Amino acid sequence: MTIACTNCPLRKFDIFDEMTQDELDFMQTFKVGELVVEPGAPLLMEGSNSPQLYTVLSGLGLRYKLTPDGDRQVINFVFPGDFLGLQAGVMSEMGHSVEATTRMTLCVFDRTHFWQVYTEMPRRAYDLTWLAAVEEHFLGESMVALGRRDATASVAWALVRVAQRMEALNLVTGGAMAFPYRQQDLADALGLSLVHTNKTLARLRERQLATWSEGTLTVHDMIGLAEVGQVDIESPPVRPLM
Amino acid sequence: MTIACTNCPLRKFDIFDEMTQDELDFMQTFKVGELVVEPGAPLLMEGSNSPQLYTVLSGLGLRYKLTPDGDRQVINFVFPGDFLGLQAGVMSEMGHSVEATTRMTLCVFDRTHFWQVYTEMPRRAYDLTWLAAVEEHFLGESMVALGRRDATASVAWALVRVAQRMEALNLVTGGAMAFPYRQQDLADALGLSLVHTNKTLARLRERQLATWSEGTLTVHDMIGLAEVGQVDIESPPVRPLM
DNA sequence: CGAGTATTTGATGCAGTTCAACGCTCGTGG
DNA sequence: CCACGAGCGTTGAACTGCATCAAATACTCG
């Protein structure tokens, strides 16, 4: 027995748009089921044309691209509420791969009905565009981190963004949150080497800004960290939930 | 007197999706007019909420973000056929600024009718999502260039992508095309310093791969250039024209 | 207990930044 | 008509942030 959209555990968070009963019912007709995957499981592959689209109900993942010579660029971290597979839905090819980092629960939609959203529920179609636009917005910010910030600022930026998103999902307790990635993942996200990422994290720790060890990230001084990372302190925008 | 959508000079290029007469008529009802701007003119500002959306009819521009300390990250180059302002249309804030590099002619749409696209012409709404998704796709690729490639590969990648887009617009003659940006623009797009960009371009020139001087880019050896830049040689995907 | 994975730390080298200077072109004003 | 300055491209030299190499520690798990 799967969760009805009406009872979706994510709906209670302020970060997600309200939905009318009509919209909930409509989404329900799309929902094929739920999928639970183990850490490391591939969800979507770059270049593939997945028949399924997902909304993350719980757990964390990674979006990434591999280069011909084996390097990996992490595009971003995947959080609950994220919608996966939009690129495959609209173009018919993913521009990146997605894999689970922790165990994840996913709400599964059938891609063959994708077009119906546009013909039958314009409001939801608008939301899909919105999601793509937010992603574009975020990647623009990431490009600034990669292209124009030094390692310290870059790492600080990433940690702030993560903390903000976690906060919006109520996953932060007294500055601490589960962040079960490897340092290599962060390094690959910021275009840094593992070694330098490690040393940069150590410096942020010494400066009493943030500590990340054993899968737990603790932000000791959000103001200071945001300053180092040149980030505005603001909660993430309210976003649609598919 | 403005150009009717039916006679839009861009439609003849294979890179753009076919449109039905219905769609053309519909777009026509949106079109407010045409705008001609001079080089350097700002078109959209980061953080602003533009009342207008544009399709580029001719000319070239730049999307970019500025950092608090005055650095600039160029997000990408703007070509004819590009749709500007989608982020402002759907969220209500641009994530980056856009300015004209050459004189540009723009087809102007009124943002207040944006929502009508979703209620009245689902096919076009779908195209909007498509545009946002392609942009996301491209930015993912850019992140690989910034994060995981050295300067030589990065520059080669950018030149190949530019050449491919120019080719699709029939703006290439015997490997040569107008490319009226400054080296600083390319440097800001790739997260490199001006000096190093200059030296990297010089090396690509010596290697007989590509020459860019006096506003003209000439690709001497596309195969070789694509190899250095680790790019697949393929024409850009067919895209919707708004 | 040994193999595999992740974090940490030190040492060395280089790709790319920064600084500085020069040449060219073009527009402007005296 | 020439002088001057601004913008852009080019080149050399010195410096440095980060990558790379190497190795030790700590865990987990079969």
**What is the C-alpha radius of gyration of chain A, as a whole number of Å?**
18 Å
Q: Which secondary-structure class do the elements of chain A indicate?
A: alpha+beta
Task: Estimate the strand proportion of chain A.
Answer: 15-25%
Poorly predicted ranges of chain A (pLDDT <50, ≥5 residues)?
none
How many individual β-strands of chain A?
11
Q: Give the quaternary arrangement of the chains.
A: homodimer
Q: Could you state the CATH homologous superfamily of the largest domain in chain A?
A: Jelly Rolls
Name the average pLDDT of chain A.
96
- Termini separation of chain A (Å)? 19 Å
Query: What CATH architecture of the largest domain in chain A do you see?
Result: Sandwich
Largest interface, Cβ cutoff 8 Å: A-B, 45 and 45 residues
Fraction of residues of chain A in helices? 25-40%
Write a concise keyword list for the protein shown above.
four-stranded antiparallel β-sheet; 242 residues; homodimer; Arc Repressor Mutant, subunit A; DNA-binding; 8 helices; alpha+beta; Jelly Rolls; 2 domains
Report on the structure:
2 copies of one chain form a homodimer. The first copy, chain A, is α+β, with helices and mostly antiparallel strands. Chain A has 2 domains: 5-127, Jelly Rolls, CATH 2.60.120.10; 144-228, Arc Repressor Mutant, subunit A, CATH 1.10.10.10. The first copy, chain A, is 39% helix and 22% strand. In chain A, α5 crosses α7 (194-206), α5 packs across α8 and α6 (183-190) crosses α7 (194-206). The two termini of chain A are 19 Å apart. Chains A and B meet through β5, α2, α3 and α4 of A and β5, α2, α3 and α4 of B. Chain B binds a DNA duplex (30 and 30 nucleotides) through residues 150-151, 182-184, 192-196, 198-200, 202, 213.
